[in-house]
Structures are given as C-alpha cells and as structure tokens.
Amino acid sequence: MSIPPLLKLAALIVTILGLLTALELASLTSKQFKPTPARTPHHFSNMLGFFPHIIHRLTPKLNLVLGQTIASQLVDQTWLEKAGPKSLASANMPLITTTSNIQQGVIKTYLALFLLTLALAILVVSY
Question: What is the rounded CA–CA span in Å between residue 62 and residue 56?
Fold first, then answer.
C-alpha cells in the first residue's frame, strides 16, 4: 500500500464535505428569501462620484468612434491604392517586361553590328 488508510479516509471525508457544500450553495442560488430585495440608495460613494456619467459614456464612445473612423479610413485608403497606382503598375508590368526584353535584344544586335562595322572599317583603312 502506498497511502495509509487513515489518509485515504481523510481524503474521502474532505471530498464528501466539498460535495455537500457545493450542493448547499447551489440550492441557495435558486431561493429568494425576501419578496422584494432591498435596493441600496444612490450615494456619492456607490455612484462613482468622482467620475460622472457623462465621462463614463463619453470616453468609450469617443474611443469607439475614433477606432471606427481610423478603420474605415484605412480600408478606403487601401482600396484607393489598389484601384489607383498599384493596379496601374500591375496592369502595365507585362508591357514593360516585353518592351525591356525586346530592347535588350535590339541593343545586342546594334552593338554587334557596330563592332562588325568597326572591324570592317579598320580592315579597309589598313590595306
């Protein structure tokens, strides 16, 4: 045996006491002892007298409106960029690459013809 019987019994007793306490608390939650509960009057201390209702409603509202404005402006700006400069660049990219590739080939051809003409001119002048 790894645990003595007295310790096992103590664990069982604590478990049963916890279960009984939980059942009692659960039954108390469904009972209403008075027909109408007593309402506490509004005092300076329990009404958050240091922060009036205007501040408690104005600050969260301002934060929410500011967040909504920032989010909508970011969405509008993103769409504007996608519809404007970025879409123009992406639409012209195939034309740009095609023209660049063609011009690379032409430049190589022009350079080869220039070197051939230069070599021919040197041969003609030297003989």
Answer: 11
CA distances from 37 to 32, 96, 126 (A): 8, 79, 121
Please, are residues 48 and 56 in contact by the beta-carbon 8 Å criterion? yes
Residue range 51-67, pLDDT digits in tens: 566 667 778 889 999 99
How far apart CA 55 and CA 95 sit, in angstroms, is 59
Contact 117, 125 (CB under 8 A): no
For the chain, how many residues are written? 127
Domain ranges (residues) in the chain: 1-32
| Prediction pTM value | 0.31
pLDDT (tens digit per residue) in 65-95: 999 999 988 888 888 877 777 888 888 899 8
Contact 46, 40 (CB under 8 A): yes
3-state secondary structure of 22: helix
Instruction: Look at residue 18 and give its three-state secondary structure.
Output: helix
CB 82 within 8 A of CB 75: no
